[in-house]
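[step 3/7] fold_predict: job queued, chain A
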Amino acid sequence: MVSLVTTLPKEGTADQQQVDSWLDELAKRRPAKDIELLREAIATARAAHQGETAADGFDRFLSLLHTVDTLDGLKLDIEPLLAAMLSGLPGHAAYDAAQVEQRFGPAVAAMVAQVSRIRELSATSSENVDEKGIENLRRMLLGIADDVRAILVVLSKRLQLMRRLKHLPPDVQRRVARETQLVHAPLANRLGVWRLKWELEDLCLRYLQPAEYTRLASQLDGKRREREAFIADVIERMGAACAQADIPVDLSGRPKHIYSIWKKMKRKRVDFEQVFDVRAVRALVETVPQCYEVLGIAHSLWRPVPGEFDDYIAHPKQNGYRSLHTAVVGDDGKPLEIQVRTREMHEHAERGVAAHWKYKESKSQDDELERRIEWMRRWLEQQDDDNPPPDSVEDDTEYEARRIYVLSPQGKVVELPNGATALDFAYAIHTLVGHRCRGAKVDGHIAPLAQPLKSGQKVEILTVKEGGPSRDWLNPHSGYLTTNKARNRIRQWFKQQDYDQHTAIGRASLEREVGRLSLPKPDLDKLAARFNFKTHDDLLAAIGRGELSAIQVANAQAERVPRDAAAIADHEIPEKLRRRAPSRAAGGAGQVVVDGVGDLMTQVAKCCKPVPYDDIIGYITKGRGVTVHRKDCAVVRKMDAEHRARLVEVAWGDSQKDSRFLVDIHVLATDRKGLLRDISSVFANAEIDVLGVNTQSDRRSERASMRFTAEVNDMTQLSRVIDRLAQIPDVLEVRRQLS
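[step 4/7] structure written:
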């Protein structure tokens, strides 16, 4: 590993002279006002943590200074440095959130709170958590941070802990190292912060695979002088060749990342000597053309290894990483890796804008996580600029998380879609927990089941020993559920309940809907066949379980269009009027086809006002064509034998486009002011013309009985407007009136 240079002491504590010397170094690259704010934060932290030591015996105040020093190396603005210095205050007697906000600003105060919250969540032991749970925890730590700089503060604090891990017991070393390897190092990798990532990974390997780490470190150290001499010779030869070509270049040996070497040895199944980047040189130039010139010089000096050239400048990685990578055979016959990039590319790689995580990690990445990381990277990219880049003015809501990550009381992380409720969470835990759910606590407080959750919240479900879900949970307007999994579990529960009960509920619902629309008694067997049920009881049970709506089935009953005329029950039609029905192409007069007669004028009877697709029959008038009645019309039922001889079979035509039909709608409601206005607005919103209104009010019962004559297109529109009228406050009953 490479030791980072700092003027701060490595052990003990830091006196005022050492702090002042360190601040003087920072003042060379930071404004004076920033140094003054940092000096005040340091004084606050010193007063709060004077004499305090951590579990590893390290001075807390000095640890905070090292954390700030690490963040300064990332060239962040002053706010995360202040937040890091004050991050030990929450839970301390000296902590006053309002005072921190007043003195250092809301952004710093928010970061201090976020760091405290994130550290609390990430402190959950990862020893027995599966890989998916760890991945969700990583995402949650990103999701709950409103400011990505808070994540960098957490990672910097974790780095200080890992550097001092040798002072803790072995079991604690392994637990902390495993948590760091599974959570913090991947976060640094996904943010592309190479300076933090490589050291965290190396330290994790040191404590999780001590034998492997020691062996590799020994091999690196054993060959160090030989390798340093070889690298120095490479740098001298390349430097001379570049100078001769008049190309200014900075050449250096690339730092050795022990974890990267170990990982490549495992993945490629090769030994130490066969790993290309054990010996590596990095060349930094000013322009892109110079990158290719230096690459050509390297290939002219040493023989390139076939298949080991990657041009990430012409074809950048999707994460934005740009560089030239090549491997050559050195003079000693051993491989050498050479990287060539511009100084700008190197700066981005060092600070995390162009991250390595996409091609370093073999696991697939989902688009939503990439969107969040891209937003964070764009924000980091403008840290040194007073003016944000043009594309940063995009609406940040595009990068808002579409998933949330919440905790169970046991610390398990549960992934849910954004907007999910406590009830969704209950079904995500277990189906029985969802069925028996009767309430929820969010962060220790009772919360409504329909309340949307937020990432990082701890949710506890309150259950009963026995019970089942409510049908109201399935209502999309109630807001109880957002996940299909929960809805399907509830539907399955109702489906498994008493079949007879569901059949009775379905029958009552269908009869109520048919009565409301004044439809004839439905043919349940035909309807069952239409909806692919074996029996009509199965159809009714499906209605009772909520799989089908009564309105849907009633409309299907209304839309039955008889094409083959059959004898009309209880009506005797003269033989001379019984002729073959015309074909579909024959059409018919208006929207009604008269059996065996073409081009005949028809009109709808005003007594029963039939609507497509009521069961209808025609009556031949004298000079006015055929009047169309409903089959159950009272006028038809009371006809004598002479008039029955004029009945003829009719059917609705194939098309009812642009047709209008009169219907009478009866409304019974509790009388109040504004009732007629509310009803009229329903008709207006549905674009239905009302041609007549008849209202009667009973003062004693405070009931209003209203009859509206309206024009509708078909039974579907009629059903829809009746349903909307029934939802008006104080409306007791709505139905179609036939006479």
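[step 5/7] annotate
Residues 170-190 form the longest helix (21 residues).
Confidence is low (pLDDT under 50) at residues 124-128, 353-363, 382-400, 560-590.
exit 0
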